[in-house]
Prior knowledge:
Layout: E1 6-10, H1 18-32, E2 36-41, H2 46-53, E3 57-60, H3 69-82, E4 86-89, H4 92-104, E5 110-115, E6 131-135, H5 138-146, E7 154-156, H6 163-166, E8 181-187, H7 196-207, E9 212-218, H8 224-234, E10 238-242, H9 248-251, E11 256-259, H10 268-275, E12 280-283, E13 297-300, H11 305-317, H12 319-333, H13 338-351
Parallel strand pairs: 1-2, 1-4, 2-3, 4-5, 5-6, 6-7, 8-9, 8-11, 9-10, 11-12, 12-13
Amino acid sequence: MNRGLKVLLVDSGRQWRGGQQQVYLLARGLKKRGHVPHLVAPAESPLASRVSDCGIGVTPLRGAHDLDIATSYRLGKLATEFGADVIHCHDSRAHSMGRIVTGVMGVPAQLVVTRRTTNVPSGGRKYGGNTRFIAISNAVFSALVSAGIPKDAIDIVHSGIELATTGGNTKKRSPRSHPGDYQIVTIAALEEEKGLDVLLEAAVQIQDTNKSVKWTVVGDGAERDNLAELQRKHRLPVKFVGWQKDVAPFLVNADLMVHPARSEALGTAILEALSHGVPVIASRVGGIPEIVDETVGRLVNPDNPGELGKQVLACLENQTLRDDVLIKGPLLAGRFGASAMIDGVIDCYGKCYA
């Protein structure tokens, strides 16, 4: 198509997590490239606010469940009035509504669904039809293929980060006034699948050594109270700072980033850390091995606080690794810029009309 595409972006998330960050970057990128994006999202969500601030149209998403016919009807009406060429759905609920709009209501728009989980989908006709899928990692691609979705209906488009604003530390950290006083950061939603309880168990073990290690956890979620109780019980030097709009200040002086997830489709927080030259210790799950190797960090088995603790101590002692990642981290993260993600999504749109 020679003209700019009209793209209806649909996301039902009420919090700001990795998926919402990607929708925001995509909406902004589509507009800069001459397309016309319009967002459908909960009115009170940070995503709706940020996208609106960019001068992009936003329509509030109402309704409470996947098969909300009334909400799907409103979405279909909006798609028709907007003249949408593409309805791009970014989570499971949005996907369900998109199938109703295009498959039942017959709205003549191409349906594109981004999948951000490595769980093998099971949704019957929901995953059929003339739908094009975007997998954010090779691990997600494999899960979709395992569900019987044809390979030629799936594009792998890795999530991206804003390289211009994250930059990367190119200078070595200044010598510590108190050698052995280390700073570790974790950036994650405080949810069960992120494994923060494993992190705290590892912190208990490290506390028994003579190392002075301080931990900062950036993020919020349902597990916050439980995690805070564990922190108080063991008197751990762990500080929960909640959700932060800008995570860069927490990475600038970090010696290590720890990401003990039980499941992870890719891990943009890991990319943020690497872009700042911070080594990463992360679980060997999902798409994480696609971005973390021995040159920039270490992989550990999930749900293994003993192994995690040992690797943390080893990496803190490994000055060569920490110095190397100052150079290698930003170079690796540079392959996952937002611009590449946006180009990949637009290429996917183009395949809908091939």
